[in-house]
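Bench notes, afternoon.
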Amino acid sequence: LAIKSEGDFVRRFLRRLVDVHREELPQFSVLSIVYFIFIVGLVWSENAIRAELVDIIAYDDVTLYKAAQFYGSIFVVVASVIYTAYVDRIPKNRMVMILLILGVTAIGSITAALFILGDSFQAIGYFLLFLWHRFFFYIWVVHWFTYIIDLYDTQAAKRIFPLLSAARPIGTMLAGLSFSLITINLGVGHNTVMVIWVAIVVAVTAIFGLMPFILETQGVEDSLGRRSTTVSNTQASGLKSLGEGFRYVMSSSFLR
């Protein structure tokens, strides 16, 4: 009886600490897993890319890593301008998929070139991979959280957002601790780490694409879909009112 009561106490304590309602749990679980896996791939790839670039001299004693940081910043600014131009025109869940597919196509192609072209492509390949790593680190992560905000109302977001954000430090910590294990102890090369990164982004893309079906099997409605429908109805109502106002003005006797 004492063990049972202690177990009940722990469950109640965890339920209060992780304040996720039962109906929110399926969606919260999928989102947490997606973000955690994504962060692990991001940290592993960053460590491997930095290790490859830090010893290569680009020009005048400037390492290729420092040059990549400079050009990576420019790349992010340009990508941000393009992203800003289209983000309001495309539904946020679709934009997540577009960014994922665009990114995985780029890093997949570069990684394949690393194996096909060999050492002659090593420096430029990892330089390009660093640019796309910055793309994921800034553009995708920023859009991911704007997508999350749209899934919940204001009160729920206050509870869910910090808990989902916790997947980032946890993923960063575990990825940092395990990187030396897979590269030194298991002898996994940096090119292979890039393959793992591509596989992780592919997995994240697949899980995110299947998320509506996963949630549907759990009896969870697509909150973003409902929100999009509401917005569409509001926009349609606004256009209807605008049209009625335009017809009223055109038929006014003051214009004759």
